[in-house]
Amino acid sequence: MHHRNALVVAWVLGAMSSASAVECTMGQVAIDSASVITPCGELLAAHNLSDRDRAQAHFVRGRGYHRTQRLNEAAEDYRAAFALDPKNEEILVSWSNVDLRLRRMDDYKRRVEQAYALNPKNPRVLRTVGALLFNFGEGDKAFEFYSKAIEVDPTEGFALYYRAREYRFKRKFAEAIADASALLAVSQAGLNDARSFLDEDGIVRDFRVKALLERAYSYQDSGRLDLAEKDYDAAVDVGRSAPALAARAHFLGFYVQRKDDALRDLTEAVHTEPRNSAALYELGISLAGFKRFEEAFAAFDAAVTARPDYTRGLVMRARMHRQFGRTDAAVRDLKTAVSLDRTDLDGLRELNGLMNALRHAGYWSEPGLPSGQTRDLDDAMRACMIDPQC
């Protein structure tokens, strides 16, 4: 719908400077996100642009800011773009993602709903509605919207990924593997800019890795371990990224004879991305398995330092504090973990594991997760952090 505008923006830029002729375009964002910021700014300084073309320049620059983790600046560009082009639902889709990353949940919800009202047939809008429903705990409804998005556009990469994940959660592994395989085909072909996505830390990743790992998880969960390992290896081969190395290491860690291989992968992952909290967490788990507790504590501590709201890291750092008799510090970490937002699935699993440990040790009897911190819960956690068997 807005392809013409991108070409106009590129043509105007070419008239201004032959060195930057095609840089303020969405295509250039996919190639080098940061590179569009300056030329789009130069374009916006011009006084002869139509509102539609000025909106597109703000939108492109917003995407550049977005993909380089300058979220507040991205939000301002999206705001300016939408004010000039208020029927462009694509702007709202990107803007809502910034709101989600900044945890502005009311704004996030409102913008997704507004995008859907503008164009309920846009596949990117449909999968964004699905993601919204998932983030608000309505997984079954989310699944319906992922499927609607794929019906409209079978190459919609995010919808394929999200639905593959949902199929895996439902233990429908054949369907999950089919969607992951379709996603891999899309990402290998480079359709719809599907070769890259922003992970939860705002880092641009290769979608081929996401597809291979999602398929590997389904192979692993369905007992097809040889195929799982093949996909883990393939994911690592695509650039040896920290997420791929950490995922393969987690898989290898189940085999006693391959724990050294897992540790090597994790060491490389953390060397590659020293602030990757998931890789640091897995490194801590591996080191603890080797009883290298000081180093394990350092890894968990680094994970929480990189991401203070990292529930899994907080719980494991608390356990390391307990290992060294630092009860107050351990309880402090657990209290922080319990107080955090509970939208992260891995974090929820970690909290459930903690509460099950408290129940098994006889320090807690209430079902489910606590709604908040209480004196009784504080006492239960303190008792657990004193008891090495808890």
Overview of the structural elements:
By secondary structure, the protein is an all-alpha fold. The chain has helices spanning 3-16, 26-31, 37-44, 51-66, 71-84, 89-101, 105-118, 123-135, 139-152, 157-169, 173-189, 207-221, 225-237, 242-252, 259-272, 277-289, 293-306, 311-323, 327-339, 345-360, 375-386, and strands spanning 196-198, 204-206. It contains 21 helices and two strands. It has a two-stranded antiparallel ribbon with strand order 1-2. A hairpin with a 5-residue loop joins strand 1 (196-198) and strand 2 (204-206). Helix 5 (71-84) runs antiparallel to helix 6 (89-101). The longest helix is centred in the middle third of the chain and has 17 residues, at 173-189.
How many strand units?
2
Helix fraction by DSSP (H/I, runs of at least 4): over 70%
Task: Note the overall shape.
Answer: globular
Low-confidence stretches: 1-20
Q: Mean pLDDT score, rounded?
A: 91
Major sheet summary line: 2 strands, antiparallel
